[in-house]
Design brief:
single chain; 0% strand; mainly alpha; 7 helices
Amino acid sequence: MSAKGFDCANFPQNFYKKSTEKHEMMRNKVTLSAFVAAILVMPIAFADAGVAPLMFVNIQLLPFLLVPIIFIEAFVIKKFLKTNYGKSLLYSGIANIVSTVVGYLVLSILIFPFTAIYVWVTNLISKGIFSASFFQSIWFIIIISFVGLIFSFLLTVISEYLVLRAFFEKKNKKIVVKTTWIANIISYVLLVLVVVFFSILSALS
């Protein structure tokens, strides 16, 4: 030990220990960030009810995503429900706004259990019960995203079906159901492509 209290003999060991601790803290932060990202991807960002989660990320994306969807779904409504394009735009706009609001409200409610899960998992990781690498796995994010995709899709279909059913009471129920499914499948394909595009763009920037 020197006069200033510097332990020369144990310096390499102490330095390695501190470096290891910093690395572990950084890995946990990355892990938790990945976990939160996966959770947020869950309603994450797919389709009309899935447009709502994107509002939390960037409100400017809303018209960019919602307007094309309204026009595309209006075309589907016109084709299958045999109405003019003007009315189809109106019905499509109302249906999409309703499903977006529903998605926003559901997401707002789900934030609370998601936060509780986040705290719970953080605690388990810090105690070494859960493996940090599990939440960094691409498969974990893919599975959570897939579950979120199905959840958002069904929520959107139900919301928009109820709106269209109110406008087309005299139409055959099966045709309204078919129209809703086809319109939303097209919408989801579009939104998935947009999300993938922005994800790649973000990764490259």
